Amino acid sequence: MTDPRADIQGFLGGLLRCREADLEGYAAAFLAEDAVFDISAPVERLQGRRAILSGFIRPLRTALTRLNRRDELFIGGRNTRANGGDWMASLTHYVGRFSAPLFGILPSDRMVFLRAGEFYRIEEGRIVEARIILDLLDLMRQTGRFPLPFSYGTEMTFPGPVTHDGVIPPDRETGARSLAIVEAMLGALHDYDPTTFGSQSQTGSDGLWDDDLMWYGPGGIGSTTGWDGFVDHHRASFLGAFPDRKGGNHYCRIGDGSYAAVSGWPSMTMTHLGPYLGVAPTGRAMTLRVMDFYRCTDRKIAENWVLLDYIDLLNQMGRDPISDSNRLGGLPGQ
């Protein structure tokens, strides 16, 4: 018997590589005719297999020549939230030569790594629902047209886990333990010191984060290491801008081996009360779509990869980062 995680992973890779003449027939094997994909801005909801192919898969195939998936994580499990279901989650890069516009973003005609977080609900071996966040801000950075005045951390291509075992992990029995560690951490994050931005039970010998944690954030935030780096390069600026933020509202939480993944659509509700990424406070109520992927040891979180729909968030702030990006000059030689 084959591993259903491997079946879906192989199918997703094949969607990008099969001949155009075979695409619709190939997709029918693992993608339900009435499947619904919710994708980060500006794509949004696609209903039905044909819409998914024309609104998401074909634009990727056209924009990125010699297109491949490079999965860094690919896990699956039973959703512990009330809506249940069997889900799979991946942290991947769409890799190819960016040779034609994609979702309004101008191409560089150079190799790019478009990172994505993906959650798939599976019924009878087929994908019936998906939520996907594409890091389009980071794609703009790779073209030399980054539309923001700065990033808080280090912008980089997401690495895979230090242990190199995140794709279809073999030790599935520890998934419940990994998810329990993550859920304990998430519960403690809601209360924080407004001066230090610390939360109870996060660090130290009894804390839930490893002292040498690696935190990988999306375009605009960037990556960092250690709890102090997490505070300095993300948490302090975010809580300063959105001090009333409320998180949670997850539609999916799964654990698989040393890994756990959670996502909310949206996950956060908040008010824009302080400056953020160069945008003055607007006083507007906002929401944020979130995906988090974690690698855990026996009792701590060692690595965290984060996808946030910052195109949608910036749109709510009154900014159009795609249009802003297209007004910039791009890489040397373009």
Automatic annotation (TrEMBL):
Recorded coiled-coil stretches: none
Organism: Rhodophyticola porphyridii
One GO-annotated biological process of the protein: polyketide metabolic process
UniProt name for this protein: Nuclear transport factor 2 family protein
InterPro entries in the cross-refs: Cyclase_SnoaL-like, NTF2-like_dom_sf
A Pfam short name: SnoaL
Highest rank taxon of the organism: Bacteria
